[in-house]
């Protein structure tokens, strides 16, 4: 729409310019003026159509109560008025001016003067004709007295009358005698037979030949009436050029009179042409201005509408960022600062919510810790007496029973002791999980920690190998908690491998580290049977375990610690050629921000 | 062919625009007494090398145009001849065409009417004489014998019209609004079969 409007407006400006040039210049485009007028009318219609559709659309929006239509219509009205009023005034003034100036070209006195000038010219020519005719008659009289036409006599008579050319002709056009001044009239222009006959019948006539550009010549035809009976009738033609000065002046007068007549004849048309040109210029300018006003109105209304919409959204509780106006002016600043304001509101709201959440979480954690501590205490308290009592029973009764009963007693006692031990472990784990203190992160060399932890596994049944990234920057972590994480993971892997060791197969646990895009990645992997599918999905939930004696809290604790550190943990099965070839647990921990710089500085 | 088709569309567009221009004036003025150019006779006659056309037109200018000529406004006339051959399922084939431009003017100083064709001109004492000469086209060679097929039917058309585009601009505008400025012109068409008149 915008482009179409621009194109049409440009074209119409061109057309109006052409029409105006055509109106001002008499020769330019004179053949195509009606075409130009038609094209201008077409352009005006197209623009009217464009404006009409826009007005209709706005009106429909207004009626439908579309948000912003009211403001747009008001702005449009103002802008359109600003264009229409001065335009109309200018139009009225120029119209008056143009029409009045056309009228002022015409003056009765000028017209009378031009007519008079022309009459004067005609009079001069008439006088010359009369003069030549008179001379001709006198010469014809003299010639008629002679028996034959004597060229010498003709020449003398011609010179006496100071006429440029004289020729005597028969009525059939044959030349009898010719005389001319200088060489110019060697071959005189001869009259037609009809003219000769006409001249012979009357007393002679005179005419003016030629035009003002090539020169005027006065010619007179006079019959030479012979007194002798039977002689052939002859006609004398006299030729006298009109003096150049007279021809030129007469030509000027004639041209001026012609132009004036033409102007007067075209007066109405000229007025019409000027009126039309001005009207088209006005119409095209107005339509273009109104069409432009639409865009201006929309452009002006846009930031205001954006703000209004924003305030409505904020009132409704929507604090998401709004579109801003990327301009340097005050409106742009306004929309941007409005956006900043909502952003700050949003942030404050989120902070408040987060504080609330963390407070609730802390409260819940504290309550949970307390419950867990007391529960552990309450459960642990009777466990020691149970264990001691069972051991005592076995000690006291073992000797008094026969062999089979003693064996049964020993079995039962071991079961009680084992289960009590397991229960103790579980309660400890439970307490540890609930009591896990918040981490105290500090720059930590992960590789050193791993080496330290692995010393404990040096003589274990499952060999642990390492693949450490020697350039690993320090991470930000709590050393104690990370030690626990490593223990949990390596112990888990080693325990999973025990079966394999028992079967006499090669078991291997690998701990590796690598720097991975602002995070340190630590992977503990084995070459065992991998995680079963249901474990993979629920591994981090408490009480999920593959071990016969596990509490299922190991990985849950690991995850809690890693979460507290802002890291991530993933479980996966290693695949070799599509077959599970082991399990792996990967941790990602953020680097201590300045550690790289520290390293390079050191 | 394309040229003539686009030309045809261009003409139509121009006509439409001119019509629109006419509509800009208040409505259509009622018909008034206007001049006309009536074709009276036209024929193709064989000459030494082919065919020539002779045609006669009755030219009446009407009071408005006569007044304009009397005020030394030159009028341009155009004689057009076209010879076409009808073709089935296709637009007519253009065989030959001739166009002559006349200029009729009045010399106020010598009170003579002048009819010019190119650089040739002829003076007349009265307008009637000039118009009579204008309306007579005699033995104008049109087409060579070789270009025509004996027995084939051709359509010939003659037309003599006032060339409005050569009028002074204000008068062109007047002519849009006022039919008195226009000359009713008719085209005379007739079928012609070469070889029959030999």
Count the DSSP helices of chain B: 4
Strand line-up of the largest beta sheet of chain A: 2-1-5-4-3
Overall geometry of chain A comes to: rod-shaped
Please give the alpha-carbon distance between the first and last residues of chain A: 66 Å
Q: Pairing-aware structural class of the strands and helices of chain A?
A: alpha+beta
CATH arch. level architecture of the largest domain in chain A: 2-Layer Sandwich
Strand neighbour order, sheet with most strands of chain B: 6-5-4-3-8-10
Uncertain residue segments of chain A: 597-602
Helical content band of chain A:
55-70%
What Rg of chain A do the Cα atoms give? 62 Å
Arithmetic mean pLDDT of chain B: 81
Report the order of strands and helices of chain B: HEEHEEEEHEEHEE
Q: Structural class of the helices, strands and pairings of chain B?
A: alpha+beta
Task: Please give the number of β-strands of chain B.
Answer: 10
Described by strand count, sense and barrel closure, the largest sheet of chain B is: 6 strands, antiparallel
Strand content of chain B: over 45%
Mean pLDDT of chain A: 83
Question: Quick one: overall form of chain B?
Answer: globular
CA gyration radius of chain B, whole angstroms: 19 Å
**Order of SSEs of chain A, N→C?**
HHHHHEEHEEEHHHHEHEEHEEHHEEH
CATH class of the largest domain in chain A: Alpha Beta
